[in-house]
Amino acid sequence: MALVTEQPQQRPLSDLTPAELQEFVERKRAAYAALCERGLRLDLTRGKPSSAQLDLADGLAGLPQGHTDADGVDVRNYGGLSGIREIREMFADLLWVEPGQVVAGGNSSLTMMHDTLVMLLLHGGVDSPRPWNREEVVKFVCPVPGYDRHYTMLDSYGIEMLPVEMHTDGPDAAAVEALVKGDPAVKGMWIVPTYANPTGAIISEEVAAMLASMPTAAPDFKIFWDNAYAFHHLTEDEAKGVDILSVASAGGNPHRPIMFASTSKITYAGAGVAFLAASTENVAWYLRHYQYASIGPDKINQLRHVQFFETAQGVRDHMVKHREILAPKFAAVDAALTAELDGLGIATWTKPSGGYFVNLDVIDGTAGRVVELAKAAGIVLTPAGASFPHGHDPRDRNIRLAPSFPVLADVETAMAGVATCVALAAAEELAGRHSATQSTPEGA
Ligand code: PLP
């Protein structure tokens, strides 16, 4: 049962008279005081799978049966840097690429992104005139809001970040084109193409084709195509991922995209299998440098995953079980926000059809305050601004909600509380603006 109360039809706060607004503030202060008294301890910070989701993969525990793969390789031993053939074939099918374009690695796609970035910095790519770190400055286009770990990774290597707006069909392609066409220091960009973190946006074929074929001043421009949520549907209307490797080849830039994915949110977040997919030249380049870092991945875990899923369809079927756990939590987020905030004109939020997040935009200047109010009431949210480079949201309006980890009842409780905080912060801000206007001396 949702802990949200039905509200009468609500009017935009901006339409209220000063006295009505003050009355609204008092009501929300009382609701907030009651919230604080409950002594909640809830956490909506990170997009982690819940225990119930992890339990879905417990069949992995008794696997693998035997210790040889389909090629007769003893998976307990060293070797096989690109990963075992069966898992590459399974995920090539799912990611719409050829098995020869796939590397199956360790447990983290973020690590593969990091390795790729470092290799580009130290060695340059297949089409680089020189290593990236020999350039005076390296810049990356960063769609915002986006994934905080992408930004912190770039920041750790001193790479300059150029924000562009994320739209519902992907990054603002015209803005990206303008940034990349004249500046050879712009070496790459990040894209979460399907069910983006945190907006849930799905890139369209048109936007993908524009980004894959646009002229870039850098001859070795790379798209880090982070397909972390490719199969993570919340509805039966499943988004079909763009086949970016083919689109880029058709656009004359076969080496531009490097795709990453993993089973972190399919099996175990801490013990899944990660993948890199790219042109065969890029794959050979990656393995050529990676051979100095590893004598082979955890092939036992790869074989375990192959036996657990059996087929690519097995992965798709497994994702339906995740959906059954996750969809009610996302519905609860929407229900709580709608019940408290609908009609007030102080917040908008996404209703994603996949992925792990809801993107909440509150009125400018209040996101930090909302997070602070929630924290004081025992509800921990991702820090305001986390979805922007350097953790700085210039409008201080964006909050990333991550409802996957807590149990449903806690999501309901937490979100009713968050909605109260949003309403209180907005009302106080508007009342403050109002009295500031009134107290401004004439002519000032
Ligand atoms: N990419 C995105 C967009 C994510 O949201 C996450 C985790 O939240 C990751 C990558 C992490 O992937 P992995 O667990 O494979 O390292």
Biggest beta sheet attributes? 8 strands, mixed
Report the order of strands and helices: HEHHEHEHEEHEHEHEEHHHEEHEEH
CATH superfamily of the largest domain: Type I PLP-dependent aspartate aminotransferase-like (Major domain)
Give the count of helical stretches. Answer: 13
- For this entry, what is the oligomeric state of its chains? single chain
CATH topology of the largest domain: Aspartate Aminotransferase, domain 2
Measured distance between first and last alpha carbons: 53 Å
Classify the secondary structure makeup into a structural class. alpha/beta
Low-confidence stretches: 1-6, 440-444
Indicate the radius of gyration in whole angstroms.
Answer: 24 Å
- What shape does the CA trace take? globular
Number of strands: 13
Chain-averaged pLDDT: 95
Ligand list: pyridoxal-5'-phosphate
CATH architecture of the largest domain: 3-Layer(aba) Sandwich
Beta-strand percentage?
A: 5-15%
Strand order, largest beta sheet: 2-9-8-7-6-3-4-5
